[in-house]
């Protein structure tokens, strides 16, 4: 009896994502599978009273039955072509389930980039087995016998030892019969070799690395040295765009690859894959590949196979690339780690940075984060001594930091200027158009909807309990989405008494129209949700602007990322504080990030740039510090606010999101859960239940409970209390989802 055969039972997670079946079920292993079955295999099993056929994932084999063995059902078979979930992936899924709250099967599906196995693609070719002289004799014979097909193929084979099968069957039009007879004569062999599907279709000349600057070299040396000493650290590289972070990543990866290790590179969004890939491809060639949602299932599967077999060293992609199964993972790198897109929007709502940290710990890998405007989380951990900070202080392409003007829109109004362009911005736009230089106008639309501010004094109507702005709802009432606080419509500013208190309404389209009126000859491109709906249209707009087919590019958030336009010498930020009014606690951080990045678009070429920041709140620290490009000072002020209000990263927060058929049922369950959490003796603070920001989606009413505590483990316990409570309710119709340290208002 082999060791494996002693395991006669298997614990299996059923492929049904429902809390009620979210535990392992035990099955008997049939004799035929005793020596075959392994943890991670997908099996077919009878489930429930009706024994309907289900799939499940084996997470454990055991020799001991937890129930009388005759009561256990038997596994039917291993599902053909299913992917085996590795032990590492099962551990990571269990970690995600525990830390983010989801069913085990949902967590398992998340950590599997490819769910089904695909037969390898094959490449067939015809190979010559005899020397050319012998083929010439055969050719002469074929000519005598007037065998046209033989003449065609033998002629080719005299010159080429290997012919692609497509050529032979296609252009040469040789039948299978002819090939067979040549094969039987020992003249040729038809060979099929399996090849991986490779989504990287690039040809680019190889480039050698740049001579690293002193700052860059220090980073690479220290991290590499720590790694070789067995230290597995987390490192934050803080450097503005263009300061050489990517070059550092490449040098670090070179060292890892030389040491026989593999690396994962995460980027914030799929649209940036191509430019990053191209740079890596020039250094690593076919040893680098990509993983993202636009790949076919077969391509995804093959990238996992290539990772497993060591055919590649590096994978690049958005957050799901984290789950590519590298057996020798040495380093995970996360570029622009502050980007909100690293948080998953479906269950389990994992954050790629935290998950990468857990994965790195499991696999003994190092973690490298990079950002021009680090998340408060990352910088907080630097202060705590958990991450090591490396600054990159200089832009390597030349180009100085731009000159920034902050314009107070309240003063513009006082001076009688009601246009969306301040006098300073008008003056600079006119000058740039005359000089033939390019302009970017940035409309910060985040948090656009709903908030109310005073045009005379800049006052924003806020919740007295939560320090976030109130949002306007139907009928004019104002509502806090954290605690449910509500007040009637405001028609006079409570600060200065002005009646000019309202929402900001300029959209990108109105701005384009305004430009048309003021500068009729200017050529304008607009980039927003409307103009980029079609596939590739985003890239087309960017290319057109880069080729200087337009003078002005107007856009929302999308234009601030990654793209380099050397012709741009002026950036106008039209309403910098719009995003400050997004009613969530990250508003100040997001504003600082967006402004810093937008300002960074100016003066990337050889001429110096200028930036105009228009705002109703020029005194707000997010705006002041962005104008100064001073992250350190911004952090100091922002972290005080987080500490005072117990927001992450100073404390942790769990949003429990309830979906219900009626508002009463949703609120009712919210109150019930509040009671259960209180009864459990938990020390957490409970806020709500309140209506969610989006009160209804597809006729499902949404409520949210916010739970706060300094210790994440206390939030996990609350999640467990809630799960236990809802699993005990037989006929519960409401849904409950968890969002730990949410990125946005719910
Ligand atoms: P980041 O990732 O911080 O935006 P990059 O690594 O893309 O910065 O570098 C910005 C530009 O500077 C790139 O064009 C890159 O080729 C160049 N660069 C980076 N490091 C060096 C170096 N040591 N010497 C010369 N040029 C460099
Ligand atoms: Zn006012
Ligand atoms: Zn409130």
The radius of gyration is 31 Å
Poorly predicted runs of 5 or more residues: none
Main sheet attributes: strand count, strand direction, barrel closure: 7 strands, parallel
Small-molecule binders here are: adenosine-5'-diphosphate, zinc ion
CATH fold naming of the largest domain: Rossmann fold
Distance between the termini: 56 Å
Strand content: 15-25%
- Strand order within the widest beta sheet: 11-12-10-13-14-9-15
What would you call the structural class? alpha/beta
**Count of individual beta strands:** 30
CATH architecture designation of the largest domain: 3-Layer(aba) Sandwich
Helix content: 25-40%
Fourth-tier CATH superfamily name of the largest domain: P-loop containing nucleotide triphosphate hydrolases
How many separate structural domains?
A: 5
Specify the overall morphology.
Answer: globular
CATH class of the largest domain: Alpha Beta
Number of helices: 21
Q: Could you report the average pLDDT, rounded to the nearest whole number?
A: 88
At a glance:
The chain has 746 residues and is an alpha/beta fold.
Notes on the protein architecture:
With 746 residues, the protein is α/β, with parallel strands linked by helices. It folds into 5 domains: 4-110, PriA, 3(prime) DNA-binding domain (GIY-YIG endonuclease), CATH 3.40.1440; 121-195, no CATH class; 214-392, P-loop containing nucleotide triphosphate hydrolases (Rossmann fold), CATH 3.40.50; 403-448 and 504-642, Rossmann fold (3-Layer(aba) Sandwich); 652-740, Alpha-Beta Plaits, CATH 3.30.70.600. Helices cover 33% and strands 22% of the residues. It is built from 21 helices and 30 strands. The strands form 7 sheets. A 7-stranded parallel beta sheet has the order 11-12-10-13-14-9-15, with helices on both faces. Strands 16-26-25-17-24-23 form a 6-stranded parallel beta sheet, with helices on both faces. 42% of the residues are buried. The model has no long low-confidence stretch (mean pLDDT 88). Adenosine-5'-diphosphate is lined by residues 210-213, 216, 239, 241-247, 396-397.
């Amino acid at each position: 009896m082999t060791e494996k055969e002693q395991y006669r039972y298997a614990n299996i997670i059923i492929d049904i994502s429902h809390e009620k079946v979210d535990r392992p079920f035990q099955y008997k292993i049939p004799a035929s599978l005793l020596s075959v079955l392994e943890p991670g295999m997908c099996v077919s099993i009878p489930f429930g009273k009706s024994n309907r056929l289900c799939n499940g994932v084996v997470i454990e084999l055991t020799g001991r039955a937890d129930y009388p063995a005759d009561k256990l059902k038997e596994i039917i078979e291993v599902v053909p072509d299913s992917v085996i979930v590795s032990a590492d992936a099962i551990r990571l899924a269990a970690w995600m389930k525990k830390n983010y709250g989801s069913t085990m099967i949902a967590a398992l599906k998340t950590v599997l980039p490819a769910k089904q196995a695909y037969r390898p693609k094959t490449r067939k070719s015809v190979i010559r087995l005899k020397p050319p002289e012998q083929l010439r004799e055969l050719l002469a014979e074929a000519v005598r016998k007037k065998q046209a097909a033989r003449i065609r193929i033998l002629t080719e084979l005299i010159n080429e030892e290997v012919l692609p099968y497509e050529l032979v069957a296609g252009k040469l039009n040789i039948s299978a019969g002819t090939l067979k007879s040549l094969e039987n004569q020992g003249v040729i062999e038809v060979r099929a070799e399996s090849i991986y599907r490779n989504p990287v279709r690039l040809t680019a000349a190889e480039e050698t690395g740049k001579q690293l600057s002193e700052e860059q070299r220090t980073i690479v040396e220290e991290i590499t040295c720590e790694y070789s000493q067995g230290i597995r650290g987390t490192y934050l590289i803080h450097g503005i765009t263009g300061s050489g972070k990517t070059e550092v990543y490449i040098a670090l990866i070179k060292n890892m690859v030389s040491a026989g290790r593999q690396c994962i590179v995460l980027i914030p969004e799929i649209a940036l894959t191509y430019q990053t890939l191209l740079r890596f491809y020039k250094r690593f060639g076919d040893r680098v590949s990509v993983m993202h949602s636009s790949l076919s299932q077969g391509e995804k599967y093959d990238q996992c196979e290539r990772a497993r077999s060591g055919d590649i060293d590096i994978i690049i992609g958005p957050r799901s690339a984290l789950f590519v199964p590298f057996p020798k993972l040495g380093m995970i790198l996360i570029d622009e780690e502050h980007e909100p897109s690293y948080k998953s929007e479906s269950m389990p709502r994992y954050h790629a940075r935290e998950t990468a940290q857990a994965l790195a710990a499991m696999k003994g890998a190092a973690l490298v984060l990079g950002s021009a405007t680090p998340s408060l989380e990352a910088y907080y951990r630097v202060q705590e001594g958990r991450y090591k900070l490396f600054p990159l202080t200089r832009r390597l392409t030349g180009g100085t930091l731009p000159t920034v003007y902050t314009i107070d829109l309240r003063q513009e109004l006082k001076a009688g200027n009601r246009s969306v362009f301040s006098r300073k911005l008008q003056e600079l736009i006119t000058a740039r158009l005359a000089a033939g230089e390019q302009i970017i106008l940035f409309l910060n639309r985040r948090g656009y909807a709903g908030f109310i501010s005073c045009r005379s004094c800049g006052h924003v109507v806020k919740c007295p309990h939560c320090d976030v702005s109130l949002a306007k709802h139907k009928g004019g009432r104002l509502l806090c989405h954290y605690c449910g606080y509500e007040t009637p419509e405001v028609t006079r500013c409570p600060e200065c008494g002005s009646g000019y208190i309202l929402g900001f309404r300029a959209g990108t389209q109105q701005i384009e129209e305004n430009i048309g009126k003021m500068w009729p000859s200017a050529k304008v491109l607009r980039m927003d949700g409307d103009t980029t709906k079609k596939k590739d249209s985003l890239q087309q707009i960017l290319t057109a602007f880069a080729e200087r087919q337009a003078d002005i590019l107007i856009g929302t958030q999308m234009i601030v990322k990654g793209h380099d336009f050397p012709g741009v010498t002026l950036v106008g930020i039209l309403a910098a504080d719009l995003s400050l009014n997004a009613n969530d606690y990250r508003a100040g951080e997001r504003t600082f990030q967006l402004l810093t990045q937008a300002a960074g678009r100016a003066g990337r070429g050889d001429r110096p740039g200028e930036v105009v920041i228009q705002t109703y709140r020029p005194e707000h620290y997010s705006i002041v510090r962005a104008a100064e490009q001073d992250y350190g000072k911004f952090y100091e002020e922002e972290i005080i606010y987080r500490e005072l209000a117990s927001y992450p990263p100073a404390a942790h927060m769990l949003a429990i999101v309830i979906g219900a058929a009626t508002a009463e049922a949703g609120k009712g369950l919210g109150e019930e859960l509040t009671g259960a959490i209180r009864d459990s003796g938990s020390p957490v603070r409970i806020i709500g239940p309140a209506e969610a920001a989006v009160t209804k989606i597809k006729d499902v009413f949404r409520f949210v409970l916010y739970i706060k505590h300094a210790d994440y483990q206390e939030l996990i316990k609350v999640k467990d209390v809630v799960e236990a409570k809802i699993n005990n309710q037989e006929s519960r119709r409401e849904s409950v989802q968890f969002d730990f340290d949410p990125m946005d208002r719910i």
